[in-house]
Amino acid sequence: MGPGDFHAIVAKADALNELGRWDDALRVVTPVLTAEPEHLGAGVTAGVCLLNTGRAMEAREVLQRVALAHPRASDPLRLLSYAAVQLRESGTAVECARQAVELSPWSVDTHIQLSVALTSARDRPAAVAAARRAVEIAPASAAAHLALADALFPEGAKPSEAELAEAEHHVREALVLAPGNAIAHNELGRIAMARGQHFAAASALTSAVVSDPRQQVALANISMVFGQLVFRAHYVVFVLWLVSRFTVTSTTVERSALWVLEAVGLAVLAWTVLRLRTAARGRTRGLLRDFARRDPLGAAWGGSLAVGGSAFLLMGITPDPVTRALVPFVGACLVVGMVLSWIRVRWFAKRRQR
Amino acid sequence: MLIGAFAAGRAAYDHVMTNPLIASLTRAVEAAPEDVALRLHLAELLLAEGDGDAAVGHCAMALQRDPGNAQARALMGRALHGIPDAVVPSSEAVAATPEGESPAEPGATPPAQPPVQPTAPDAGSGFDWAAAESEVEGFAPEPMFVEGGKEEQPAVDAWDVERTTVRLADVGGMTEVKDRIITSFLAPMQNPELRKLYGKSLRGGILLYGPPGCGKTFIGRAIAGELGAHFIDVGLSDILDMYIGQSERNLHELFEVARRNAPVVIFLDEVDALGQKRSLTRHSAMRSTVNQLLSELDGVSANNEGIYVIGATNQPWDVDPALRRPGRFDRTLLVLPPDQPAREAIFRYHLRDRPIEGIDPAALAKVTDGYSGADIEHVCEGAAERAMMDGIRTGKVRMIGMADLYAVLREVRPSTGPWFDSARNVVQFANADGTYDDLRAYMKRTKKL
């Protein structure tokens, strides 16, 4: 096996990487790395394989060796920065990305990586500036627009409306360039969620799921949207139930007032169902099933609310004694829902800590 | 329809003379031509009598009245395939059939021949063709006229063209899959007359999809065996090449070899990689590989008659939709984890050459629902290893027992789980056109959805 063969093998591994066959690519390129541990192409290809299979530590080891042997190459440094982000070493990530940018100032990938590294280091202004440069270099790159949107609205941040608007603009640009881009649809969903537009979020996230059904992030975000809708519905039922207590006393049941409250409840329910069905485009059942799988406590909360809501709607058409009995029953359902939501919040908090 | 009715009537008439039950049923069918169940019963009897042609005619008429009738389709498949009712092998018998042996019985209609076969010498002409052949053996005269230079042919084909002896009968269990292969693919291919009558071309392919390790490659081989065709097994690494354009050349060469060896089954493993959705490929090199595959499948520059392409994939959702158009992979077939009889057969197969004692394959098959063939192989390996290690520890050789297998089964989980997790989302959210309806039905049935 000589240098000519190495080139052929690395090219084949690259083709496998292109197909997402990370393990196969790694198997193909390993003999080259064994024969020549500092081979630039093989090291970079192996780094890509390892990073995509979640083996950041091993990737760092290989890439550091190659970066030391080839100090003028930007790819190993860029990938080292990526590995450092995965390993939550934001300082190293920024340092490596800056070096990569110095070596390849006209490469859009290096600027995108710098933006990602700065975002992980919580330096938002610098991250936005790096992503802006990426967009300037390659205005027709969907990845650059998405990087800018991500820098403007990183995970866990609370951006201003102006920042959200700019982020949305760039996500829409990315969608013009790559209409089936699931990540872009997911970003659009996140922006709508940040604005409290639950149905718009559900619509964008459904598009993300349809574009790439195996994308777990979008499905997780839809579950969050459903959780928020359950919370809203709980609030509405609680207010209606509270008011209804004044219409149902131990001596009288004011039917007309009860019917008005129930009409309001039915209108809210119909509006919610209609909007949700429009947003989910015929996939409501599948999405609800996925929600139940991901968030069983949220689904149980929704279930108790559905029982309580149905009982509330029955209050208007049942005889007086039954109506009086249903009032505490609805209250009990709401209490069960509250307890479930409390357990759910604790469970989420614990999971986040882990 | 008239031809079918005539053939059916004529053949049934012949049997009237011999079988009184067929005679009375024929009269009943004539009296109630709309009664599909009665007609199918008659077809069953005719098939059992070895009169496949008449059975086909009745099946065709039954299907005309009730196109979705599964019994009629299955019966049609058997009739076209020449399998009389009496010799349809049970799953156990199928699993036990030795390799390469077709499950024919005396009195059964001989199985249809592969579509392209050398014609037999004319016995009635009086000329001794065999003697003449032996006289000119080895003598290959040069052509009288030569136009242009001789086309350069490689001395040895770069692709292994093999003759496979595996038959569908060697596939344990999986009767549903085999029935579908017969009715949708093999029967039309193996019956040239009927094919001509219905104007069906000898091209197109079938896409096998399903979780990994469930026997897609084996089924591909079995299809080639049934067709009596050559078999070329093509993996991703056989095609992919570093140099721009070389992958396309490899593909072209593969089809050229196939054309020279027709009839041939090309088995494209991991077709999702070779024919990945062009929207997913970032580099133009991979896109042109897909384009080349499309053009080879269409036979743009050559005739693809006698070339059957079978694709296998674990990720059908990544396959370019263009590959699913008519003439390409226009039929898809879901290959699921083996059913109980198949699992039993697989256990028997993997334990057959090992020292075993008190093994109950049926009991093992019962507790391994959802396990792939590869998982079962792994279980058998593990059990053997366990018994061997025990022998090494105690210094006493012992047989592999049920306890070993159960112990390994407690540790080995079905490897098909992650595949079904991916499939669940696809079936739920990306099945608007109904491509994965059969998968959806299976997942619902097995409570995976």
Describe the structure.
The complex is a heterodimer of chains A (about 350) and B (about 450). Chain A has about 350 residues and is mostly helical. Chain A has two domains: about 5-155, Tetratricopeptide repeat domain (Serine Threonine Protein Phosphatase 5, Tetratricopeptide repeat), CATH 1.25.40; about 225-355. Chain A has 17 helices and no strands. Chain A has helices spanning about 5-20, 20-35, 40-50, 55-70, 75-85, 90-105, 110-120, 125-135, 140-150, 160-175, 180-195, 200-210, 215-245, 255-280, 285-295, 295-315, 320-354. In chain A, helix 1 (about 5-20) runs antiparallel to helix 2 (about 20-35), helix 7 runs antiparallel to helix 8 and helix 16 (about 295-315) packs antiparallel against helix 17 (about 320-355). Chain A is elongated and about 95 Å long. Chain B has about 450 residues and is an alpha/beta fold. Chain B has three domains: about 1-85, Alpha Horseshoe (Serine Threonine Protein Phosphatase 5, Tetratricopeptide repeat); about 160-335, Rossmann fold (3-Layer(aba) Sandwich); about 340-410, Helicase, Ruva Protein, domain 3 (Orthogonal Bundle), CATH 1.10.8. Helices cover about 50% and strands about 5% of the residues of chain B. Chain B contains 20 helices and six strands. Chain B has helices at about 1-15, 20-30, 35-50, 50-65, 70-80, 90-95, 130-135, 175-190, 190-195, 215-225, 235-240, 245-260, 270-275, 285-300, 340-350, 360-365, 375-395, 400-410, 415-430, 435-445, and strands at about 160-165, 205-210, 230-235, 265-270, 305-315, 330-335. Chain B has a six-stranded mixed sheet. In chain B, helix 1 (about 1-15) packs antiparallel against helix 2, helix 1 (about 1-15) crosses helix 4 (about 50-65) and helix 3 packs parallel to helix 5 (about 70-80). The longest helix of chain B has 22 residues, at about 375-395. Chain B is globular. The model of chain B is unreliable at about 1-15, about 85-125 and about 135-155 (pLDDT under 50).
